[in-house]
TrEMBL record, chain A:
It comes from Mesorhizobium ciceri biovar biserrulae (strain HAMBI 2942 / LMG 23838 / WSM1271). The lineage of its organism: Bacteria, Pseudomonadati, Pseudomonadota, Alphaproteobacteria, Hyphomicrobiales. This is Sarcosine oxidase, alpha subunit family protein. The keyword S-adenosyl-L-methionine does not apply. PANTHER family: AMINOMETHYLTRANSFERASE, AMINOMETHYLTRANSFERASE, MITOCHONDRIAL. Keywords: Oxidoreductase.
UniProtKB/TrEMBL annotation, chain B:
One of its GO terms (biological process) is tetrahydrofolate metabolic process. This is Sarcosine oxidase subunit delta. Transmembrane segments: none annotated. It holds the Pfam family SoxD. GO terms for molecular function: sarcosine oxidase activity.
């Protein structure tokens, strides 16, 4: 005998057939089925192999807490592993496969692991693989040997490597009241809040609202509860102030009442609707939240409780009432509380035989005896299940008399023939979101459960979530919570009347039946009761340690069914009451969340692109672009057939021989203005700016507060109170923030305003022996001769009718000028300069040539100002004013920052005339087999056309003292070793005669 | 986490940049008291509870704000401009709104 579809009943559409495959076999189900219910209806009992022992596993639950029946859903090449079959709605074309089995689910080779249970106990990895090394195959090396086999044998589904073509979406939402959970409590709360005019959102992770009303078979206001739920939902759906979110798991509760939810928009469809994403991530800011998340039923812990066919009582009730599926023909029940009796009646009604109800309690209420009689079940009060029988499906079980007072088993076991065993170990409120929101759960001894804590954020609980397990209570609490959440007054009002079977909500305090055999606590991670006790014997007494050592509750289900039983067993082992052992804090997410939904639209090129005004011109003129932070800058303007090196060598050479022009629009530019601007710059820069004449520029260096170098650049005095600061491209944002911080927080009394004007200006640097002639040929309104425009001078003029500002300064070491114009005129000015330069052999050059010329000159950039170097390290100590304090001046002379063995800037020449590499280490003696004793490293390197050598800048211990000595480059990763000569960083034209002209 | 910027109103924390411990006192610029400088540059309070912090509304008005935040609950009990009298007119405006 096996599970089957009942002839009637359930909320599925028997007229609509849906075709899908599971492990390659074609199946049919009906609209409204989950993968679990559809397979169960076809008699499937085996859904997966367990994590460690590869034991056959069936369905334990009917919902999100399912630990066993995890499947991988295939969509084209994309595989999504570890989805509970209970949460997969079937659709035509659905392809699902089972996991962690080889070669097949029915015949699994690793099931032999069950025989090795003693070895594979808690802490198996620590004990086996982390010992000291005695032989060739112990400890870590043994692990390396075994890893491949273990990885294959243990675990869950494997992720795919195909690119996911699905679209994901992110939504921000705001509401007055967010209701989580749509059972009777959630529906009442939604209705009450909506009646107050509040903007309400209702989210439920199931496809159909109604929660327990969908399968409880109770009546509300005289109608089946499911009909009442459907009617209520229909009313709510028609209201403008209510938003309904089915298939939406609220998985995170963050501060300021911000909640995260995942809506599975189109997983249940063969093809998503037009414009529909697969998943939608909701960031919901709710003024108030109603938590009506219900409760999870707990399994009982006894030997063989994981055999396929052993299921939670309410899950069976759900399969029968909601899906019209009987999980077995001969059903036995094992319970410690009243709630399971309702399941017995439901299954009897649906057509199964209920052969026995074993209850650990010796005394049963007349009401329960009446229900048992209705189910025509034999009652075994004061009995416990001590074993189950069968292979891939249950065939029977053993009962024994049980002493509730001390847990002892008495007398002989008797066998009962059954193909399905339902268990109920009481209920645990689903307090995950409340726990995430910040407070500690409170143990309730009567309910034998952790109840939600006092709110630390703005939420109100209702229904089973609060430990009120009856529908009547849920309805009353739901309404009150909805009213309160919407800020309404609680007024007496007629509540819907509920007809339900009676029952005591408090279970007997029994979690485990101690008998011989493996009793599973955490089904998904294969943690047994004995593992928990072993952990205790080995000294893991804190619940947090227990969790990590045994991995209890750490699987994808996060211990939804195992946390409380595991804790109870631990408490017993410690001889302490459960509240003293404590519980772990729940963390987000409540259920697994697709990474795609978190990324949503933010994938691929996440960063904005910053383009200079001349960008299109560069592209049209053969530039190869290079991304520098957010910016795109020409790397080279290659001629056809040229390599990068050939191109930059040509560009740099031509610049030094005649002239070159480069786009410098990316430099950070900050307008520093106000009566105290000069005084402010004196504090910010290490050198003096108040003495700078209007119409002149000066090179400046900034330090951080800790005395290390921060940034450099030139600042131009455009007027008495008006400066234009330039920064390096990379640090523009940081320098701006640095200035703002000091003006806002440290020196609010300074009358200075700083404005980022990087994007307002286009800049072109033109340098070389012919640069001045080129300017003279195109600039009007001013002379550019040495008298009018001396070194570091600034003039204003026009180029091709456009106003420009020209400053004579040099990065390339040549006679050079920076020409600034309004950004909108940038290309116009650039073209005019290029045109004017033609007769003089002007070349455009890119970052590579720029870098080459700066290395030849020994100028520093971000590669050397790397957050570890001081001004002295970079030979910029001449810029440290002694006449005034500045940012960093107090800290820059600390012992460690002036030590003689610091890394200092030097130049290197490759004596073997082969290319050097950035990051390569410098050593005194080469030891290729065992590289050691680095004395420094290369920060930048190039082939220098001016010197005809491969050169580099480097930071080397002792620095200047090593000039003229030899060392070696040691770069084992790139297999580059060779002799270098250490020289001054000023390789080329050290006295600057070229730029001064 | 929301920070209520006195200029811009309640905004998500992603618009802000943390600019450090707000309890630090910068020594006089000319001070040679190395202990004081060291404390200013390196010492940070790490309270479990209310903490004075400096945040910049970098994705908004760019003002620096003195924020009192509870490090355990993220509850923000006060937000003010870091530069005392800064934008007093704006503050009145914010109060009027409230």
């Amino acid at each position: 005998m096996s599970p089957r579809r009942a002839d009637t009943g359930g909320r599925i559409d028997r007229l609509k057939t849906i075709r899908f495959t599971f492990d390659g076999t074609a199946y049919t189900g009906h609209a409204g089925d989950t993968l679990a219910s559809a397979l169960l209806a076809k008699g499937v009992t085996l859904y997966g192999r367990s994590f460690k022992y590869h034991r056959p596993r069936g369905l334990l639950t009917a919902g999100v807490e399912e630990p066993n029946a995890l499947v991988t859903v295939l969509k084209g090449e994309v595989r999504e592993p570890n989805i509970p079959a209970t949460m997969v709605e079937i659709h035509d074309g659905l392809v699902a496969i089972s996991q962690n089995r080889f070669p097949s689910l029915a015949w699994d080779i690793n099931a032999v692991n069950q025989l090795g249970g003693k070895i594979l106990s808690a802490g198996f990895y620590y004990k086996t693989f982390m010992g000291p090394v005695f032989g060739p195959l112990k400890g870590t090396r043994f692990w390396m040997f075994c890893e491949h086999f273990i990885r294959r044998a243990a675990g869950l589904g494997s992720a795919g490597s195909a690119k996911d073509p699905a679209r994901y979406e992110r939504m921000n939402a705001f509401c007055d009241v967010l209701v989580v959970g749509s059972g009777p409590a959630g529906l009442m709360a939604t209705k009450a809040a909506a009646d107050q005019g509040a903007r309400v959102m209702l989210a439920d992770l199931e496809p159909h609202f109604g929660g327990s009303a969908n399968w409880s078979e109770e009546t509300i206001d005289g109608a089946p509860a499911a009909d009442w739920a459907r009617r209520t939902v229909a009313q709510l759906a028609g209201r403008d102030n209510v938003r309904l979110l089915p298939r939406t798991t609220v998985w995170g509760y963050y501060d300021n009442n911000t909640l995260a939810a995942l809506e599975r928009v189109s997983d249940h469809k063969e093809h998503p609707g037009k414009g529909e994403p697969r998943h939608r991530y909701w960031a919901i800011r709710a003024k108030s939240v109603v938590l009506a998340t219900g409760a999870f039923e707990r399994p009982l812990i006894f030997p063989g409780n994981d055999r396929p066919g052993v299921m939670l009582a309410h899950a069976a009730e759900r399969y029968a009432n909601e899906f019209g599926v009987l999980p077995g023909e001969r059903i036995a029940l094992f319970t410690n509380n009243d709630s399971a009796y309702r399941a017995a009646v439901a299954l009897k009604k649906a057509g199964a035989a209920v052969v026995a109800i074993a209850d650990v309690r010796p005394e049963l209420s007349p009401e329960m005896r009446k229900l048992a009689a209705e189910a025509e079940a034999e009652i075994f009060a004061g009995h416990a299940v001590v074993a189950t029988e069968g292979g891939k499906a249950l065939s029977g079980l053993k009962l024994q008399r049980f002493d509730l007072a001390n847990g002892a088993l008495i007398g002989d076991a008797r066998s009962i023939h059954a193909d399905c065993l339902l268990m109920s170990g009481g209920w645990s409120p689903t307090i995950h979101l409340a726990s995430q929101a910040g407070a500690k759960a409170e143990w309730n001894a009567a309910r034998q459960a952790f109840l939600p804590p006092k709110p630390t954020q703005s939420w109100i609980g209702a229904g089973a979530f609060t430990g009120s397990f009856s529908t009547a209570e849920a309805i009353a609490e739901g309404r009150a919570a909805g009213l309160a959440a919407a800020g309404g007054q609680s007024t007496p009002s007629m509540l819907p009347t509920v007809e339900a079977v009676p029952g005591d909500p408090d279970p007997a305090p029994v979690f485990e039946i101690r008998a011989k055999g493996k009793s599973f606590v955490d089904f998904q991670h294969d943690v047994t009761a004995e593992d928990v006790r072993l952990a205790h014997r080995e000294g893991f007494v804190s619940v947090e340690h227990l969790k990590r050592y045994t991995t209890l509750g750490m699987a994808t289900d996060q211990g939804k069914s195992s946390n409380v039983p595991g804790l109870a067993i631990m408490a017993e082992a410690l001889g302490k009451p459960i509240p003293e052992v404590g519980t772990t804090r729940f963390r987000p997410p409540f259920a697994p969340v697709s990474i795609g939904s978190l990324a949503a639209e933010r994938f691929g090129d996440l960063k904005p692109e910053r383009l200079t005004p001349m960008h299109d011109w560069h592209l049209a003129n053969g530039a190869t672009m290079y991304s520098a932070g957010l910016w795109y800058r020409p790397m080279i303007y290659g001629l056809s057939g040229e390599t990068v090196e050939q191109a930059y060598v040509r560009e740099a050479k031509a610049t030094r021989e005649s002239a070159g022009i480069v786009d410098v629009s990316t430099l950070g530019k900050i307008a520093v203005q106000g009566p105290d601007a000069a005084a402010f710059l004196d504090r910010v820069y290490t050198n003096m700016f108040s003495t700078l004449a209007v119409g002149k520029a000066r090179y400046g260096l900034m330090l951080r507060e800790d005395g290390l170098a921060f940034d450099d650049g030139t600042t131009w005095r455009l007027g008495e109170q008006d400066f234009l600061m330039t920064t390096t491209t990379a640090n523009a944002g940081k320098v701006m923030q640095h200035l703002e911080y000091f003006l806002d927080v440290i020196w609010p009394e300074l009358k200075v305003h700083v404005t980022s004007v990087t994007d307002e200006w286009a800049g072109a640097a033109i340098g070389g022996p012919k640069a001045r002639q080129i300017l003279a040929a195109c600039v009007t309104g001013t002379s550019v001769d040495n008298a009018t425009l001396p070194f570091m001078g600034i003039v204003r003029g026009e180029i091709s009718g456009v106003p420009v500002m020209i400053c004579r300064l040099s990065f390339s070491g040549e006679m050079a000028f920076e020409v600034y114009s309004g950004a909108g005129h940038g290309t116009h000015v650039w073209k005019a300069l290029v045109e004017a330069g033609k007769p003089f052999g002007l070349v455009t050059y890119g970052l590579e040539a720029l870098g080459t010329m700066r290395i030849e000159k020994g100028h520093v950039t971000g590669a050397e100002i790397d957050g570890r170097t001081t001004a002295r390290d970079l030979h910029l100590d001449w810029m440290l004013s002694k006449k005034k304090p500045f940012i960093g001046s107090a800290m820059m002379d600390r012992e460690g920052l002036i030590a003689s063995d610091r890394l200092e800037l030097v130049g290197l020449i490759a004596l073997d005339n082969r290319p050097l590499n950035g990051g390569a280490h410098i050593v005194e003696e080469v030891d290729e087999a065992n590289p050691h004793d680095s004395i420094g490293h290369i920060t930048a390197c190039c082939y220098s056309p001016a010197l005809g050598r491969h050169i580099a800048l480097a930071l080397v211990e002792g620095g200047k003292a090593r000039h003229g000595t030899r060392a070696h480059v040691s770069d084992p990763l790139r297999n580059r070793f060779g002799p270098v000569e250490i020289v001054s960083n000023h390789f080329f034209d050290p006295d600057g005669s070229r730029m001064h002209g | 986490m929301l920070i209520t910027c006195p200029y811009c109103g309640p905004r998500d924390v992603i618009e802000f940049t943390y600019q450090g411990d707000g309890n630090r006192e910068r020594p006089d610029p000319a001070s040679q008291n190395f202990e004081a400088w060291n404390a200013y540059v390196y010492d940070r309070l790490n309270p479990a509870g209310d903490h004075n912090e400096i945040w910049q509304h970098s994705g908004g008005c760019r003002a620096h704000l003195k924020v009192v935040r509870n490090t355990l609950t993220h509850e923000i009990s006060s937000v003010a401009f870091a530069r005392g009298d800064h934008g007093s007119a704006a503050r009145h405006k914010a109060e009027d709104k409230a």
